[in-house]
Write a structure and sequence with these properties.
The chain crosses the membrane at residues 7-28, 48-67, 74-91, 103-127. Keywords: Membrane, Transmembrane, Transmembrane helix. It comes from Actinoplanes sandaracinus. By secondary structure, the chain is an all-alpha fold. The protein has one domain (7-135). The protein has helices at residues 7-30, 50-70, 74-96, 102-135; strands at 36-37, 44-45. It has a two-stranded antiparallel ribbon. α1 packs parallel to α3 (74-96) and α2 (50-70) runs antiparallel to α3. The N and C termini lie close together (11 Å). The mean pLDDT is 92.
């Protein structure tokens, strides 16, 4: 288990997670706004490809686990990841949405990231505590 880190480390760590999660949004998804149409069926999909979502998800997973293993507490790390990513998505979606439904998408994304980051943080804490108990 990492040593207890001070308040300044926690704040800086959480801010770094928030910024890096926003960067992950822009790097993987923020540049793509083109829908694809299947020539055989005429069905439109997108704008994201499966590889973009998978890459973004893996990046966020690595970011959250890495931050927690480095000593950022689970709650600030999870909250920062959720808010940073959701904020970046919401700003981008609000600029191009004419219907106002980006708000619904933002709430859904926020809820999904809350649940996902809580599950990942719980797993990290459980594995870290289990590993620490074996050493004792």
């Amino acid at each position: 288990m990492p040593a207890k880190r001070g308040a300044l480390f926690q704040v800086c760590g959480a801010m770094a997670v928030a910024v890096l999660s926003a960067v992950a949004w822009f790097a993987w998804l923020g540049w793509d706004d083109e829908y694809q149409t299947d020539p055989a069926t005429g069905v439109a999909s997108g704008p994201y490809q499966v590889w973009q979502i998978a890459g973004c998800g893996v990046s966020l997973l690595i970011l959250l686990v890495g931050a927690e293993l480095a000593g950022v507490r689970a709650l600030p790390a999870s909250a920062a990841l959720t808010l940073g990513f959701t904020g970046a998505w919401t700003i981008d979606a609000a600029r191009s949405d004419e219907t106002g439904l980006f708000g619904v998408g933002a709430v859904m994304l926020l809820a999904g990231l809350c649940v996902g980051s809580a599950l990942v943080s719980g797993a990290v804490i459980g594995l870290r505590d289990r590993r620490g108990a074996r050493r004792s």
